[in-house]
Please model this.
Amino acid sequence: MILSMIDATVEYRLNNQSVKALDDVTLAMESGEFLAVVGPSGSGKSTLLQALGGMLSPISGEVFIDGTSLYDLSCDKRAEFRRLRLGFVFQTFNLIGYLTAQQNVQVPMMLNGDSTDDQLKRSEYLLEKVGLADRMLHKPAELSSGQQQRVALARTLANDPHIIFADEPTGALDPETGLQVMSFLNDLNQEGRTIVMVTHDPKAAAMASRCIRLVNGKIESLNQTQANPVKFPAE
Amino acid sequence: MNLLFTIRKEMFERKQQLLTSFLTILLGITAIVSINTITHSSQTAVKQELERLGANVLILPRDATVQSYYAADLESGELPESYVNQLSNSGIHGMDNLSPKLSASMNIQGQSFILTGILPKNEMRSKVFWQGGGTNLFGATEQPSQECLTVDLPLGGSAKPKQRIIDDLEKDQVFIGNEAASILNLSQGSTLELKGQTFTVASVLPSSGTVDDTRIFAHLHKVQELLNKPGTINVIEVVGCCQKIFEGLVPKINALLPLAKVMTIGHVVKTQIRTNQMMEKTSWAFISLIILVGGSGIANYMYSNVNERKKEIGTLMALGAGSGFILKLFFIKALFLGLAGGVGGYITGTALAVFLGPYIANIPVTPLPSLMGLALLISVGIALLATFLPARRAAKVDPCIAFKEI
Model:
């Protein structure tokens, strides 16, 4: 088991009231799995992803990755863990606007303390891999949404993460570009990386090896696969 | 790529934001420096006005009284001239100038006048000598020291011969009071016989309405020779720093010169202290207010700057940036902006004060190099502090919280 969440609860404070975004969720994943998380808006999908990725502390419960209890680590140690083992893809790409595509891909390596030469070589390689060799010197604002998401994917791969967390990676893309991004994620899964993806897109979810549905912070259904895709009820 | 590259890139790729942040700090510091410089020059101008009040400490023979001093009663005792050197070498702080004098009554053409011996070089150390009619007729006034009110030597009078003349005052020259000159029908260049020796009138002093109008001033050593009292004086007028007087200058002089009587000229010292305190309070009120206003602008801007980059902070933290990296990212930028804004603000504020000060406050304004330190302290300090609070908060929470709540 590469990733597990045990009895995790996450609460938000909203207008002086606490709202349970995740309610006592337990989940486990094997190495190399591709998990899709679906559910209506506000059901806690993104919260689940963030809690699994060490980005949001649950008020109770635990998250283990490779046997390490993420939330027993200090903030800085958890950041180091994310940098070395995990990759994130955001719905809105979260590229840094004042850096070029190549420099954005260099960021995780810079944080890792890699030499500039290594950063340049690997960022070139990764941008070529996502088909953006000719866009390396462009700023995010000069790229299309699809290109931006591919830069974000290249950045995710910079430190060669074992697990990738993708939060609605196709949410801001047109269907064709979305398909392209999903194809990249599929390739990464084929390379042996574990992927957790939040999505609203049935086609994207269908590409996962397993799918769970979250409603009101609880896992409602499990075990759908590519062979037996999840059915999306009207939200 | 490294941290510094990232900071430089962020700053210079977003030139408009860089310019706005720089201008915010620059304007804040400019306001602080210019107002502070003008206020300081106003204080200096007031202090210079107070110089006209004259000496504030008198060292008299033990049996003398203030009344005998003002009446130039010369029979109330004498002091050795060596007291002047004793005081100079004593290491007692707060005596800005010493003016020894020997006076004697003299009958000329059937009229009684006072002949007063002075040491011109001692007087010249303080530059300002006598002034007449509220106007400095002869020379520039030296800037007083900054720590306290300094009053240059008035020689017990209110009229000042020009420095050139004082410099050149020979032993056969005299200054003559306005009334005495009128009675004796003397003018500059006239000659006057005193105890069988001939003196040239180097200058006629403007009317002062004091006993000085009937005095004749000559070199101290010449007067001692004429009166056959070598090494003797009958008063040392001291221009004391009023703050030092307040802190116990008089007892120190008393202890050093046990045979003398040391006294302050109360109304002079009181006025000096009161005015000084008033100016100091006003100055602090101005400075505090302007630091508050300028500082709030800088703090508000730097705080917003971190706040508007919360998505970037969250992303960097998600990608594995530790709290140290996030803090450095903002601190180095704040440091750079603080330094640039501080130096720029000092230069602009000083230039504004120097050029506009004379029009606004009707006083000459001189640059204050010491304000550079204050400008840098405020600009860098506030920029760092205003950055530190939100950046530290961001760096200590989960990335998702940073995204949402910085």
Q: What stands out?
A: Residues 33-44+79-224 of chain A form a domain with the Rossmann fold fold (CATH 3.40.50.300). The radius of gyration of chain A is 17 Å. The helical segments of chain A are 45-52, 75-85, 101-112, 116-129, 145-156, 175-190, 202-206. Chain A has seven helices and ten strands.
